[in-house]
């Protein structure tokens, strides 16, 4: 095997959006196969490269995952690198990007074990509905929408999250309900395709049901996504920059996904080949 495409035990054969990567690599003569990231039987010295993809349980044990990545990164070429994976699996990276001038969704951070007066926050910031979420998360796990009238009852949710993790509090961006999020996807720094996505949070209202590919304008959001990659300033085999419109109509960075994002390869007929070429160039 040349390349291990890393997935998790809950999805041994990759997700339908990601699976077209395998035939695209085969077309280039690269023997790539799905490998469960924490399978103890795998010896990573036997593969020329390992590409993190659908490791969708890594946020549930981030410390284990980051330690694993450091080890594997010494045995083979790991993409993205263990440094990037460590950096990206805790959302405090958003604060760092904000300090570098990236417009990020406004966020108040509460430390682990800490508490926050949400009523005072809604008053002082003029935020109406709030979103609470852990700083280590994926798939909208432990993410809560709190209408202003229910803020006082949300104390237990704050305690639930801060018991094990830093907490993020944001204004609820109503544009998620109509236009959703836009994901700009890059391979080795080059823009590949863009996807408009409905809210991941299943309980959130939505104007459309499924992710759709679209052609972005050259300026605007694509430029912002490129500015984000520049601010990160590290090599990234794959990157997904998620942006959303805030309640004042300004586009904001919602997340940078350089760990285990869905790259929606099946939505763009050329995308699997673009990623396959980027991987083959690393061997
Ligand atoms: N500020 C926000 N306004 C509206 N919806 C939000 C906000 N933050 C998160 N959400 C909802 O929660 C989902 C997951 O949040 P996100 O920040 O993308 O974290 P992750 O993808 O890591 O779970 C989003 O897709 C959206 O449905
Ligand atoms: Mg997200």
Structure write-up:
By secondary structure, this protein is an alpha+beta fold. It has 3 domains: 3-88, Rossmann fold; 93-100 and 175-258, D-amino Acid Aminotransferase, Chain A, domain 1 (2-Layer Sandwich), CATH 3.30.470.20; 108-172, Dna Ligase, domain 1, CATH 3.30.1490. The protein is built from 8 helices and 13 strands. It has helices at residues 21-27, 62-75, 82-88, 93-99, 118-125, 155-162, 220-232, 271-280, and strands spanning 3-7, 32-36, 49-52, 77-79, 108-110, 130-134, 144-146, 167-171, 181-187, 190-197, 212-214, 238-245, 251-257. The strands form 3 sheets. It has a 5-stranded antiparallel beta sheet with strand order 11-10-9-12-13. A hairpin with a 5-residue loop joins strand 12 (238-245) and strand 13. Helix 1 crosses helix 8. The longest helix is centred in the N-terminal third of the chain and has 14 residues, at 62-75. The chain is globular and about 60 Å long. Residues 200, 242, 255 line the site of magnesium ion. Adenosine-5'-diphosphate binds next to strand 6 and strand 13.
Give a brief outline of the structure.
With 283 residues, the protein is α+β, with helices and mostly antiparallel strands. 26% of the residues lie in helices and 23% in strands.
Features:
alpha+beta, 8 helices, globular, binds magnesium ion, D-amino Acid Aminotransferase, Chain A, domain 1, 283 residues, five-stranded antiparallel beta sheet, Dna Ligase, domain 1, binds adenosine-5'-diphosphate, Rossmann fold
